[in-house]
Design a protein that fits this description.
Blueprint lengths: L4 H4 L20 H14 L14 E8 L2 E7 L4 E6 L14 E6 L2 E8 L8 E7 L8 H15 L20 H6 L3
Antiparallel strand pairs: 1-2, 2-3, 3-6, 4-5, 5-6
């Protein structure tokens, strides 16, 4: 029986393995825009949560640690998109699988996507969805660029109060005055 059992047993959960992604030697902004414009036209058309004032646009795309990090705007979201460039940020990931990516501001969670022929593999970090109806493409791009800049800026460490200051005052009066 011990010789048959290994052949019959199948794990209940098998890890999904992503395909190896080819690095982008040059800025992938055009491919990103074409892919998401096609998604907007073919799969998202007519959905009520789309913002008609926003068009698909790559607000900015930067080379980070040898890979590509883009700030993407679509009529349904603002997101950061990671693409392979042969650097250290990218790890092949299966579609739907979440992974943490360490950036200067801290760790962000990116979700794998298989994409299509023109954009075979990418990982995205959703930032804003759905978009406010007051936003237009320019405002959404400004938000996306600011988010990319923030992700690439090291967090400022907070300082603890010095022993001379002592613990904060528990009195309500001191709190309302803005003093400790």
């Amino acid at each position: 029986m011990s010789t048959v059992l290994p052949l019959v047993r199948v794990p209940a959960l098998r890890p999904i393995v992503g395909e190896a992604a080819a690095p982008w030697p040059e800025d992938p902004s055009d491919a990103l825009e074409r892919h998401f414009a096609r998604v907007a036209r073919e799969r998202m058309a007519g959905l009520d949560f789309l913002n008609p004032r926003v068009e698909v646009s790559v607000a900015e795309c930067r080379r980070v640690a040898g890979d590509w990090l883009a700030a993407l705007v679509t009529p349904w979201s603002i997101q950061l998109v990671l693409l392979p460039g042969g650097g250290s940020l990218w790890e092949d990931s299966a579609p739907g699988l979440r992974r943490r990516v360490r950036l200067p501001a801290g760790e962000l969670v990116f979700i794998g996507d298989a994409g299509e022929a023109a954009l075979p593999a990418y990982q995205y970090c959703p930032l804003v969805a759905p978009l406010d109806a007051a936003l237009d493409t320019a405002a959404a791009c400004a938000i996306a660029s600011d988010a990319l800049a923030a992700a690439l800026t090291a967090a400022v460490p907070t300082t603890a109060p010095s022993p001379a200051e002592g613990p904060p005052s528990p009195s309500r009066r001191a709190f309302l005055r803005g003093s400790r």
